């Protein structure tokens, strides 16, 4: 039994949570993976995995052994990479990027990437679906927003400012809001991810306000979401890099510029239990250069007023007014949204809207 190969196979089984996933990741037969794990357990005289017909879990001994395997394999890779011939970025690199960012930033520059790194075979996953970097065997990804997964390491490459926009036709029909309070007369197109609606954010007096607007339409793809705004189906809130060309062309109009949400970091992320290989490092450095050349991703172009204080209170706004006035311009109480409450929450009045917040 090749002990190093067995250690590598075991770590892949743990990370993908399946023998089939490990086999696919390592281009091996599933039977070979199963046999190698059995041989490893027999050699160590401990059970590393709990197996059922539906799932695989790690035993306490297996968890301890996994952590040591990761360290050993990382040290070996780092030692090998110290030699110049081996440290040349090469091999297959799997990267996941948001659809709009990939289309606008990465794809136009891929020819330059391949000229610089001809030995890297890039597999670029472009889309807005959520992926698990470890389970899906992805080397690295670009993410917009605060990092939620503690198993990932983030390298910040820029910042995305967000704008609230609508089509001229929509604003002609609904009017142009001048304050957050005016949003009670409007409708939004919602964006959802992982089954969760992402509400619009606004920065009001140093407080980040999450605003729930009436909506009859939601999309989980950035390009589709943008098209809904262009078609006049409601207000949308998108990264400036996605909307700016349409604003310049007059197809979209920014509203509430004084209440822009807090910009979000744009980062290259990769699993923390993996050594930063030459190919991942090369991609991270290249995409950082791209972001630095893109004014719409530069932190330098974000006004300090757009940055919320670190102790800003998170507030949820529940718009109480009907989205569409009746023929007399009066909001119908029957069309009001239901009042939401959580344990420990409080409510205050915000003009004609009601805010609920948790201390």
Automatic annotation (TrEMBL):
Keywords: DNA-binding, Transcription, Transcription regulation. InterPro entries: LysR-type_TF_proteobact-type, LysR_HTH_N, LysR_subst-bd, WH-like_DNA-bd_sf, WH_DNA-bd_sf. It comes from the Bacteria. Residues 1-59 form the HTH lysR-type domain. The keyword DNA-binding applies. GO terms for biological process: DNA-templated transcription. Residues 308-359 are annotated as: Disordered. GO terms for molecular function: DNA-binding transcription factor activity; sequence-specific DNA binding. This is HTH-type transcriptional regulator PgrR.
């Amino acid at each position: 039994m090749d002990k190093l190969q067995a250690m590598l196979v075991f770590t892949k089984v743990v990370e993908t949570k399946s023998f089939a996933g490990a086999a696919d990741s390592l281009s091996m037969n599933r039977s070979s993976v199963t046999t190698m794990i059995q041989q490893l357990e027999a050699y160590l005289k401990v059970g590393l995995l709990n197996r059922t017909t539906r799932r695989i879990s790690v035993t306490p001994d297996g968890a301890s052994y996994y952590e040591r395997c990761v360290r050993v394999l990382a040290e070996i890779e780092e030692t090998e990479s110290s030699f110049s011939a081996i440290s040349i970025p090469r091999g297959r690199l799997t990267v996941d990027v948001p659809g709009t960012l990939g289309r606008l930033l990465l794809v136009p520059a891929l020819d330059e990437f391949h000229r610089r790194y001809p030995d890297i075979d890039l597999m670029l996953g472009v889309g807005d679906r959520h992926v698990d970097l470890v389970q899906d065997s992805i080397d690295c990804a670009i993410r917009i927003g605060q990092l939620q997964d503690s198993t990932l390491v983030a390298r910040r490459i820029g910042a995305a400012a967000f704008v609230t926009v609508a089509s001229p036709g929509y604003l002609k029909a609904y009017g142009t809001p001048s304050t957050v309070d005016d949003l009670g007369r409007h409708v939004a197109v919602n964006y959802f991810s992982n089954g969760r609606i992402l509400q619009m954010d606004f920065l009001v007096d140093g407080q980040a306000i999450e605003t729930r607007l009436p909506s009859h339409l939601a999309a989980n793809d950035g390009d589709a979401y943008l098209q809904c705004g262009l078609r006049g189906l409601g207000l949308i809130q998108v990264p400036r890099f996605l909307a700016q060309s349409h604003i310049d062309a007059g197809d979209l109009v920014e509203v509430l510029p004084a209440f822009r949400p807090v910009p979000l970091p744009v980062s290259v992320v990769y699993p923390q239990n993996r050594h930063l290989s030459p190919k991942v490092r090369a991609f991270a450095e290249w995409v950082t250069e791209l972001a630095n050349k893109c004014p719409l991703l530069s932190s330098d172009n974000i006004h300090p007023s757009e940055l919320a204080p670190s102790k800003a209170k998170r507030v949820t706004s529940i718009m109480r007014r009907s989205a569409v006035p009746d023929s007399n311009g009066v909001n119908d109480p029957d069309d009001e949204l239901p009042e939401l409450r959580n344990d420990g929450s409080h409510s205050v009045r915000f003009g004609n809207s009601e805010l609920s917040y948790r201390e």
